[in-house]
């Protein structure tokens, strides 16, 4: 049994699959339990934020959260200036998102930021509520928080197990 546990806690693939399954189940349950809300974006953001285990796991997750927040904020800004985004508004949003990612040194996560931007801007509004873009940005943020929490708490558990089994991290 010890050998199996050691194999599991040192396998990036198993850890990543485990995190993704936990994230999927949480996001899916939220979607199913609150069907009148557009919570698919929570699920998508959870999966986008989760990182495999490794020495940079937390840093990557934090960068993905930042990127999601950047894209959501830029998307909200674009919605504020033009509530019916045109192709030109979206292009400007992509440019602004990319520049902010560059300035904040998270260019490796710019694609995540652009996905968040597109979630806020392009997804058709399923309700007549004018606050839908704000709600959608909130769902992206909620997904980020959940995904970050999964990565953080599983990292803590894995580190404790590695310490218990005297596995030296490289």
Automatic annotation (TrEMBL):
Pfam families in alphabetical order: FUSC_2 (PF13515)
Compartment(s) of residence: Membrane
Membrane topology: Multi-pass membrane protein
Listed GO CC annotations: membrane
Predominant location category: membrane
Transmembrane region(s): 12-31, 89-122, 134-158
Protein name stated in the entry: Integral membrane bound transporter domain-containing protein
Organism for this UniProt entry: Paenimyroides tangerinum
